[in-house]
Amino acid sequence: MESTTSPAASVEEQSPQWRPLSAKDRRVVGVLVEKAKTTPGAYPLTLNAICTGANQKSNRDPEMSLEADDVQESLDRLREYGAVGEIQGDGRVAKFRHYLYKWLGVDKVELAVMAELLLRGAQTIGELRGRAARMEPIADVGALRPILASLVAKGLVVSLTPEGRGQVITHALYSQSELERLRTEFRNVDATARSNDDGPPAAQRTAAAPTTPNQASPSFAATAAANADTDALREELRILRQEMEEVREETRSLRRGLDELRALLS
C-alpha cells in the first residue's frame, strides 16, 4: 500500500530538533550521553545517578552543585524538547535516557564529540580529541577534523579562534548572548596572543638567525621531541585519572541505586 505520508512531512520528521539549552540542561543531557557510552551497564540512569554525574569533579567545566530538584526540573524541560525520555526500571524506579542521536541528527562518534563539548564547553581540538576518545575511538587530531567539519556543516559546532595550532571550538547549543560573549572573549585572547607573537623587529630577527638557514639545532630538535612526548604522556595520565574518578563515582551511584531498590522491596 502506498504511504500516505508526504515527502515534505517525512523530511520534517527526520530533521534534527535541537535548540539552545541552559547550562544545567547541557550538563544533564551531556551526562546521559557520557554514561550511556562509558558505563552502558548502569544506563538508563536514575535521578540520583544523573545528579551525581552532573556534580562530579572530573571532566566537567565549570563544576556544579546541582540538587535533585534542579536535575528533575532540567529533565522535565528536556522531555518537553524531545531530547530525553523517562522509562521504568525493574524496581519501578524512574530512569532516564537521551534521544540525542535523532534530536541532534548525528552519528555515534559525532555524539561523543558533542557530549564532551556539552560537559566542558570551549576547548582546543587537541584537548577535545583526547577527551572524546574515551567514548568513541578517534585515532588522532587528523581523524577528528572531518568529524568536526560535519558538525560545523550541521550548525552544531562553531570555531572561536582561527584554524591552526591551538584552535578553540565549542558547541552551538548556547543562547545567542552566551555565544557572543564567548566569541568576544576568545577574540580578545587571540588578539593578545598575536601581539605577543610579533616578537622583535625584522632586523633583530635576522641578526639573531642561525648562520645556516632552515636548519634547526639538533639539540633543540631533540628537546622539542622529548617535550612533546612528555606532554602526550601527561595528557594520557590525566585522562586515566579522570576515568578512574568516574568509575569511583559510578560505583557510589550504583550502591545508592541498590539501596533505593532494597528500600522499595522491603
Describe this structure in words.
- The protein has helices at 7-14, 23-38, 47-55, 68-81, 100-105, 108-120, 125-132, 141-153, 176-197, 202-208, 218-265, and strands at residues 45-46, 84-88, 94-98, 123-124, 157-159, 168-171.
- The protein has 11 helices and 6 strands.
- Residues 1-13 and 200-229 have low confidence and may be disordered.
- It is mainly alpha-helical.
- Helix 2 (23-38) packs across helix 3 (47-55), helix 2 (23-38) packs across helix 4 and helix 6 (108-120) crosses helix 7.
- The termini are far apart.
- A hairpin with a 5-residue loop joins strand 2 (84-88) and strand 3.
- Among the domains are: 21-104 and 247-260, Orthogonal Bundle (Arc Repressor Mutant, subunit A), CATH 1.10.10; 106-192, Winged helix-like DNA-binding domain superfamily/Winged helix DNA-binding domain (Arc Repressor Mutant, subunit A, Orthogonal Bundle).
- It is globular and about 65 Å long.
- The strands form 2 sheets. It has a 3-stranded antiparallel beta sheet. Strands 4-6-5 form a 3-stranded antiparallel beta sheet.
